[in-house]
Amino acid sequence: MKLLYKNIAWTILALVAFSFVFSLIADYGAAPKALSLNELVAKINTGEVASIIVHDDTLDITLTDKTVMTAQKEGEAGLTETLKNYGVETAALQAVPITVEDRTGGRFWASVLIPTLLPVIAMIAIFWFIFRQAKGGQSQAFSFGKASVKLFASDKDSVTFKDVAGLKETKQELEEIVDFLKNPKKFIDMGARIPRGVLLMGAPGTGKTLLARAVAGESNVPFFHISASEFVEMFVGVGASRTRDAFATAKKSAPSILFIDEIDAIGRQRGTGMGGGHDEREQTLNQILVEMDGFERDTQVIVLAATNRADVLDEALLRPGRFDRRITLDNPDINDREAILKIHSKDKPLEKTADLRKVATRTPGFSGADLANLMNEAAIYAARNNRQSVLQSDIYNSIEKVLMGPERRGKAVSAKEREITAYHEAGHALVAASLKNSDPVHKVSIVSRGYAGGYTMKLPLEDEHLRTRSQFMADLAMMLGGYAAEEAMFGEMSTGASNDLQKVSDLARRLVTHYGMSEKLGPITFGKSTDMIMLGREFGGDKNYSETMATQIDEEVRSFIARGYATAKKIISTRKKALEAVAKALLEKEVLEQEEFNAVIAPFKLKPLLA
Ligand code: ADP
Ligand code: MG
Ligand code: ZN
């Protein structure tokens, strides 16, 4: 539809331009110099006139030097008579051939019709062109069955394994696949069965699509790419036939790779009956299974698929002979983060002292995509400040932007609000600094960012994969530090703590229901994971605990929060001087970096406590 509007706009523009040009040409053509009869007679007398053609009252005069002119004779009288009245010499007139042409002749019609018909013809031609195009678009929309499998362009912006940092094991696995496609004979001679499907699993932004593209760049075989959501469209039955088509295309050019991105869009567990349209998904999924089973023993097509929701995939997809190779991509650890940052700073002029290792320490939990985004933001920030190179501080600044949204220094904040925010953040920071099991405070700020009025950043000393109960207890207390500080200083709370409370409640509930960290309820989990709830399993009524248990869970959650709050309150009330010092420093400087914060609390010689 958009295309059609665009076309119409273009047509109108073309018509305007065309008629403009045409009017110029038409005017030009229709204007040979007009002679008066006096001038004509003079020219005849001097022998300059080669011929005269008469249409009714119009004279087309051709001179001896080939120029064409016109003149009008008087209506009633004949031409010779008229010229004689103007005093033409008879001898001279006799030398000029005079033709009388009928007005109904072809030339007349041409001169009348061409100016009127030409624009009409042009218009018809243009409309015909548009409709042909529109019809083309339509027939595209109606060719459901054809999958739009794209062949990856192999040379331009091709990606290789070198462009993928970290993910060493993953790359090894995929190198094997590449090797296989390059020398299938070696493997077949050993009686090895060709892997059919390789499933890349990992959180969004961990580089699944990037790796698939790298495989395309490394293996010199055709690489077909389709996003699973393209299988499923408005009409039922499209998915299955598109699947057939995609596989047929890949098989035709075997050895080849067929890459199905975001396969969870169709590969979800069947029969959950949520969200409608699952029949269509089921059919598409079945078709994929059928196609993969239908591979001959030596079919050299490898199906590569990517998903960030491996937990929701249908078990049938994971059976041997289908996606029997599964590769998990994790978020990068500190070394990989540094390597990814390096890759994405290659074409950016970094300041010499910029230390990407330090950036890596500050970005635990960032995915590869986050890091790429981070470096891009840093470059934009540096450019906006008219710098020649990207400074370390530009990168740090961008970390917070990526995490929490852009800084909003311009946001109007009343003095009272600023004070509340300062004490709130000071509360978080002080509680974190006071607890033995809490991560150290990296930065405290009362500059509003995104939705947050201010923020306190604490980071673990090293990447961690396990977290203990005492660390969680410290987290709960730290999260409640802002709330406790507001209460202690102003005798009431503000809405500024609502986000904290949400996070506290979620964490406490997870401790009880997922991690088995409640002493009272013991090592047990309750309910299904949230993914299952999203899939609609929970709606079927298979909540796996009783109402009595639900009450106990709620009590335990409350008791966890109460303990955290008690700890926060105790710290705030016994260390009020330190709290005030931090808040004052914040009101003055707005942002305290780790060293500055430590300097502010150093005089109070705070002893680490247990939560
Ligand atoms: P997804 O896993 O969601 O498919 P992508 O492959 O699309 O993630 O990654 C998004 C972007 O993040 C990539 O284009 C790349 O710039 C960056 N990226 C992710 N992982 C890495 C990595 N290991 N090395 C280099 N860049 C990476
Ligand atoms: Mg992707
Ligand atoms: Zn807070």
Concise overview:
By secondary structure, the chain is α/β, with parallel strands linked by helices.
Folded structure, characterized:
The chain folds into 3 domains: about 150-330, Rossmann fold, CATH 3.40.50; about 335-405, Helicase, Ruva Protein, domain 3; about 415-605, Peptidase M41 (Methane Monooxygenase Hydroxylase, Chain G, domain 1), CATH 1.20.58.760. Helix 16 packs across helix 20 and helix 16 packs across helix 21. The protein is an alpha/beta fold and about 600 residues long. The longest helix is centred in the N-terminal third of the chain and has 37 residues, at about 105-140. The chain has helices at about 1-30, 35-45, 80-85, 90-95, 105-140, 170-180, 185-190, 210-220, 240-250, 265, 280-295, 335-345, 355-360, 370-385, 390-405, 415-435, 470-490, 500-515, 530-535, 545-575, 575-590, 595-600; strands spanning about 35, 50-55, 60-65, 70, 100, 150, 195-200, 225, 255-260, 300-305, 325-330, 440-445, 455-460, 590-595. The radius of gyration is 41 Å and the shape is elongated. The structure holds adenosine-5'-diphosphate, magnesium ion and zinc ion. The site of magnesium ion (MG) has 4 residues, from helix 8.
Biggest β-sheet: strands ordered side by side in the sheet: 6-8-9-10-7-11
Would you identify the regions where 5 or more consecutive residues have pLDDT less than 50?
Answer: 137-145, 530-541
- Mean pLDDT across all amino acids: 80
Q: How helical, in percent, are the residues?
A: 40-55%
β content, as a range? 5-15%
- Which small molecules are bound? adenosine-5'-diphosphate, magnesium ion, zinc ion
CATH second-level architecture of the largest domain = Up-down Bundle
Determine the number of helices (DSSP H or I, runs of at least 4 residues): 22
* CATH H-level superfamily of the largest domain: Peptidase M41
Tally of extended strands?
Answer: 14
Structural class: alpha/beta
